[in-house]
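User:
Can I borrow your eye for a moment on a structure tokenisation matter? Would you put together a sequence-and-structure record for a protein of your own picking? Please set it down just below, with no commentary around it:
AI:
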Amino acid sequence: MTVRPKVVVVPTARPTFAVEVAKVRAVAARALLVELGADVTGPADLVMTPEDVAAAAEFVTADADLVINICASFSDASPALELYAGLDRPPLLWSFREPGPVGDRLWLNSLCGANLFGHALLVHAGLSARLVYGDPSEPAVRDAIGAALRGDLPPAPDVPSVVRERGDTDEVAEALRGLRGRTIGLVGEAPTGFTPSRYDAALVDKLFGLAIEEIGVEAMFDRVDEVPAAERDVERADAVAAQPSLATLDPAQVALSASVTTALKSWRDQADLSAMAIRCWPEFPASLGVCPCSSLSRLADAGTPTACERDVYGAVTMMLLEALGAGTTYLVDTVDLDAERNVVRLWHCGAAATSLAADPSAATQYVHCNRKIGVAGNFPLKTGPVMMARLTENPGAAGLRLLIAAGESVPEPNRFQGNTAAVRLDADAEDFVHGLVSGGFPHHTVLAWTDVRPALRTAADQLGIPVVEW
């Protein structure tokens, strides 16, 4: 008699994504598991609320042969830690391809959700999650799931160990000295379940000499309310002159966006800030009534690195790259994998500097992809050679580690509403994506169009930061 493997399946999602599509995919994934002989338990409906997570926890038991989290759409990492932190084996994260048409929003953002789960589980629970990427109808996915049911999880890719070119030690040391004494401005707390947005202020000071200046979201809203109408109108006129598509949007939201930009610039100047990391949601759209993406773009175009989702280590990475000569950069999610073309698509909601547009004269400003209110950029990012970098926690050790990758941003229409780059990696793209998840790297990396990798490696050497380079 064949013993059917006991499999716990938890489908996680978030209401701001296309939940009906997510539900269809989750049902198909569960059906495939049953077809392949699994004894499936777990919640039948999408897990989206704290109450849903608590109910799902009843199914996650020690006698399961396999635990699968179906990342039916993006979700923050709260369920990962609440459900799986006590497991003695890595969970399998199953993420789906993006189904929407070219130019539409990310319907699911499933891969990014798996990436965020992977970071949380390794950094905060010591578990190296494994990834299956693709839809239930794909033969390769069927094979991978069948192997997992037999106890053979997808392997964690080997981390490359090649020693690569270094930069001039004196120039790098001077660049690092130039960071010391500078300040990053933080607005608000880390979003719930966004583990990469946590940070160690003492470590940031020790390594880089950077100070942190904090202000609450409500205090920032007070500053927005206090912006004089004359100053708001000057910023609005400047913004419309630089970004004419703003004239097609709701005038009230364009005016409010101008007030946000003015308030952020004023705080930057008063506090002598060199970068900002902003809790950009949920309060900005839900309480203030505007998305700050276009404001962050305006600051970036003016030379101030801006990181959304209050990502401090992301902001530090941007500052480090800038100090080494990378110029303007952008904080991105890895949201899509085209293994046949060796391409990953890098995206975020619309806070890219217009100077980073494939065509800066056509750097359209529009409504936010999920919130459907202004103001956010909607244009493809420029093409050419690129590099990616990210400072992040070093699991099981003190300090930070540094992720590096490189490739070429290739021409294509803006795949997802917001700002997208299609990057053909120098390394194997499938290994890279699996390495992000199993290696516990953040869902955010920093994308740059000037290659400063030799100097960046030297900076890591001088700071005692280990490098993981794909």
Q: What stands out?
A: The chain has a mean pLDDT of 96.
